[in-house]
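Figure 2 data, in text form.
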Amino acid sequence: MTVSIADLVPGASESGGDLSAATLREMFRFMLLARVLDERMWLLNRAGKAPFVISCQGHEAAQVGAAFALTRGKDFTLPYYRGLATVLVMGMTPTEVMLGLFARATDPSSGGRQMPAHYSHRRLKIITQSSPVGTQIAHAAGVGLAERIKGGDAVVWTSFGEGTTSQGDFHEGINLAAVQQLPVIFQCENNEYAISVPQKQQMAVTSVADRGPAYGIPGISVDGTDLLSVYEVTRRAVERARRGDGSTLIEARVVRLTAHSSDDNDRTYRSQRELKSMRLSDPLARFAAYLHDQDMLSEAEERDLRAEIGAEVDAATEAAEQAPMPDPETLHNYVYAL
């Protein structure tokens, strides 16, 4: 099922539904923070200071909208490698993100052991993925089952790309969650490319959401560049999960504004026309225009916010770069077979 915010809440696209102006500005701040932080990572990579970058640019509305529908400190998130905006909303700081990029000892994700963008934070209930894509989907079902056994009411949210839905983990995780009616939300952030492979070569269906009913759960496709639509769809999925009605598969249709990663050249498989036209769907520009139109954010306030965030990212970069490297004596820590 494909929905818009107007389908869900009449007038919500104009009013922001139940969200206050202060909350909408906070959502925009997280979107902008993720974008500026992401852009800084690319500069560090090109300067030879960061080994690898995989971007969230174009995914910010899908991630911030979904994360604001969750309860921070209570619900579990298992984001995939593009989940920068997700983890920022859930409580990770720019400095903590940069500690992972620089592989420093105090990196909360892994103490500098994982590759960048394998986000994890025990206190914030952010659970890492592994390099083989899709592993977090099965883990999410397991966390949901554990929560059911414990008698809690926390919701589990996980994200992945549409290419990952070709993996067995996708089938196994969703099937278990559906059969057991587990409180898990599966968000596919569909940017139409699995690295360089277009969606039409990945699946015969036109929408990942079409797969939901095959497992006996709702499948909802939403414009992932529309922050308010994603928030509302996820809010309803959270309510459904918390009251014991089971899982939901959400397809957030997004744009990937960069190459797959810092090791990729998307100009070899995307035309100049496509690269130029996708900028028209930039979710950050779209939400900024919305806030301006609603008189919730002035041009001057946006400039001040950009300066504030720029300074925050500068400070995070400097702090992480100066942080100590892991002690070589700890090399074998957490290694269970040598």
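Caption note: The chain has 13 helices and eight strands.
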